[in-house]
Amino acid sequence: MKSTLVKIPYVALLAALVTGCSGVDLEETVTETVGLEDYSIEYKKSKQVDTLELPPDLSSSRIEDSMVVPGGGSASYSDLNRQGSGASRGPGVLPEQKDIRVERDGNSRWLVVNAPAEQVWGKVREFWVDMGFLLTAENPQVGIMETDWKENRADIPNDFIREFLSTVLESAYSAPTRDSFRARIEAGDSPDQTEIFISHRGVLEKVSGESTVWETRPAEPELEAEMLRRLMIFMGTEDAKARARLAKTSQGVIRARLIKDREGNALVDYRAGFPRAWRIVGLALDRVGFTVEDRDRSKGIYYVRYSDPLKDMQSEEKGLLSSLVFWGDDDKPSEEEYQVALSGDEASTQITVQDKNGQRDKSKTSGRILTLLYEQIK
User: Residues near 125 by Cβ (< 8 Å), separated by ≥ 6?
Assistant: First the structure.
């Protein structure tokens, strides 16, 4: 059973109960037990405030809402709003998507949407906001957006005491897990298609002596699939169809091998053509914590830098996670820039690591990077 830590002292909690703190304004939560394997996700979402009430001596009819329109004349906001509601969709608005295709390779899934990337980008951004996430990184040029770390309150054990306390003070108990997601948006095989990848990164809080430490936990492909399902619904696909498309399985074929070339340098041999290898390697890089600074598909190169989640979480948790442990001293990659290069033919693709100058990297760090990628794509 996962350990759950009390966030506030027991005495303080009793005092709060005595003084009647049930009136504390708590955050709204978005709760839904769903998913291909009944995944329980309950991320906090900001609570919406009540509609603004005007003083008795001031009514909305007395407010002058006209504004100057370029070119002369004036129009009220309500008039413009009525005109806009009847207008057709602009070129930057994504129309409803009911025929989103799901592609799958092993435990990796991604979506293919019939719309250009610039339209898809805005819709995916709206999705994360609707889910209650903040975006900590956005790079439209590279096609990547990354969320903050969120507590999955569905992981809190549900017993009588905790259920009772949660009605009084929701933050009394904390889930021992945090989740972060990264969405990668790429142009598809045709100009009017876009591919959407969602990768998960997670940490787990563990007791170590009298304190606690945070450690990474493996990426959860089923949690990624659940987010893809919700995104499909957000874009207009019916829930039943989204579930059916994501539930389809692919044959468990071993595609990757971690081998050495003639000079004894490590590489990953991926038994698939370049287009599929490019997609899978990009998703693997997202999962293992590398920031893609740039990419050049024509050259088959991802320009990456290791992203230490400790720094991200420390800034968000304000020191709560200062004891976060992710890597042993001998395993942690440096935060230098690397190039992950792909080359090959229609049958297989070779994956190697280069330094920031484009030269083959023969260090132990290179071998560890390739091992991490191999574990994700094998």
Answer: 135, 138, 145
Q: Give the CATH H-level superfamily of domain 253-378.
A: Outer membrane protein assembly factor BamC (3.30.310.170)
Q: How many CB atoms are closer than 10 A to CB 237?
A: 21
Cβ-contact 372, 287 below 8 angstroms: no
d(CA 177, CA 3) in angstroms, rounded, equals: 10
Examine the pLDDT at 4 and tell me if it is beyond 90.
no
143: Cβ contacts below 8 Å, ≥ 6 apart: 117, 121, 184, 185, 186
Most confident of the ranges 91-95, 309-313, 327-331: 91-95
Instruction: Note the maximum CA span of the chain.
Output: 86
Q: Measured between alpha carbons, how far is 333 from 352 in angstroms, rounded to an integer?
A: 16
CA distance 79 to 58: 21
Tokens of 6: 């009390």
Residue range 54-72, pLDDT digits in tens: 555 544 444 444 434 344 4
Residue showing tokens 């563990």: 206
Which of 13, 243, 231 has the alpha carbon at shortest distance from 127?
231
Name every residue whose Cβ is closer than 8 Å to that of residue 52 and which is 6 or more positions away in sequence.
none
Residue indicated by tokens 């049930």: 22
Going by the DSSP 8-state scheme, the letter that residue 172 receives in this structure is G
* Closest of 267, 309, 310, 266 to residue 286, by C-alpha: 309
Q: What is the pLDDT of residues 63-120, one digit of tens each?
A: 444 434 344 444 443 443 344 433 333 445 676 777 899 998 888 899 999 999 999 9
- Give the Cα separation of 36 and 356 in Å (integer): 41
The whole-number average pLDDT for the span 305-323 is: 50
Residues of the chain with CATH 3.30.310.170: 253-378
| Cβ pair 177, 43 in contact under 8 A | no
Tokens of 254: 């071993």
pTM over 0.85: no
- Measure the CA–CA gap between 14 and 169, rounded to whole angstroms: 11
How far is 272 from 131, CA to CA, in rounded Å? 35
